[in-house]
């Protein structure tokens, strides 16, 4: 059975600039692109090196904060309860704050229910815990299909859920952003938070992946 939950009425306006339907770049994006072009033209920057740095931040450095939050929730039942009750306070208590994470909601995966996060209007995303949003998260195809066919989208990401698992789709807004707590893999009892965090990927905190299994080589994230 597939269920959807939309976290906002679509009449509201987002308070920040985004690319809408990929048609226009915001003024800030245009200025950044112009500056990057100038730096490359002057020989001060290497496009390949810039792309590599962005990729590292998107898939490795950025999501480490969120991985630490999830690992603590797995290891500490009291913190997990706090995170589910008031994710904003729990996350801020770990020192992860920022304008894109002022109101956070944590949703927890279970054998009966899997959570998937999208922003149907643009690309609202919890930067303080996940870093930069991947390009596919902002793409119109993901934004529409995650709502209309979440099971199909998950299959394309390599996630095959049992037919009986309900899928809930959470729609991020400028006011509210979501963090998925993936299910803790079996065989990790007694692990330290640092070791547990290594099993948590960016995509698993969006809901387009599961937590890594113990002993499995780190899997590449979906392309940014």
UniProtKB/TrEMBL annotation:
The keyword Iron applies. Residues 10-23 have a biased composition (Basic and acidic residues). InterPro entries: CN_Hdrase_a/SCN_Hdrase_g_sf (IPR036648), CN_Hdrtase_a/SCN_Hdrlase_g (IPR004232), CN_Hdrtase_asu/SCN_Hdrlase_gsu (IPR023900), Nitrile_hydratase_asu (IPR018141). Keywords: Iron, Lyase, Metal-binding. It comes from the Bacteria. Its EC number is 4.2.1.84. It is an enzyme of class 4 (lyase). Residues 28-209 form the Nitrile hydratase alpha/Thiocyanate hydrolase gamma domain. It catalyses: an aliphatic primary amide = an aliphatic nitrile + H2O. One of its GO terms (molecular function) is transition metal ion binding. Residues 1-25 are annotated as: Disordered. Fe(3+) binds at residues 119, 122-124. NCBIfam families: nitrile_alph. Belongs to the nitrile hydratase subunit alpha family. This is nitrile hydratase. It comes from Teichococcus aestuarii.
């Amino acid at each position: 059975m597939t269920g959807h939950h939309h976290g906002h009425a679509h009449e509201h306006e987002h308070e920040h600039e985004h690319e809408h339907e990929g048609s226009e770049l915001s003024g800030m994006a245009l200025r950044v692109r112009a500056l990057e072009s100038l730096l490359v033209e002057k020989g001060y920057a290497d496009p390949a090196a810039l792309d590599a740095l962005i990729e590292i931040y998107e898939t490795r450095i950025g999501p480490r904060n969120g991985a630490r939050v999830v690992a603590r929730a797995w290891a500490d039942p009291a913190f997990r309860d706090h995170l589910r009750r008031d994710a904003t306070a729990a996350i801020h208590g770990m020192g992860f704050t920022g304008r894109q994470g002022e109101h956070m909601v944590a949703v927890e995966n279970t054998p009966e229910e899997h959570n998937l996060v999208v922003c149907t209007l643009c690309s609202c995303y919890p930067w303080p815990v996940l870093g930069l949003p991947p390009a596919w998260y902002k793409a119109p195809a993901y934004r529409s299909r995650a709502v209309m066919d979440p099971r199909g989208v998950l299959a394309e990401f390599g996630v095959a859920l049992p037919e009986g698992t309900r899928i809930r789709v959470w729609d991020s807004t400028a006011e509210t952003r979501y963090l998925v707590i993936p299910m803790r893999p079996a065989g990790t009892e007694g692990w330290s938070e640092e070791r547990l965090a290594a099993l948590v990927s960016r995509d698993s905190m969006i809901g387009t992946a599961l937590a890594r299994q113990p002993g499995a080589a780190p899997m590449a994230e979906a392309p940014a």
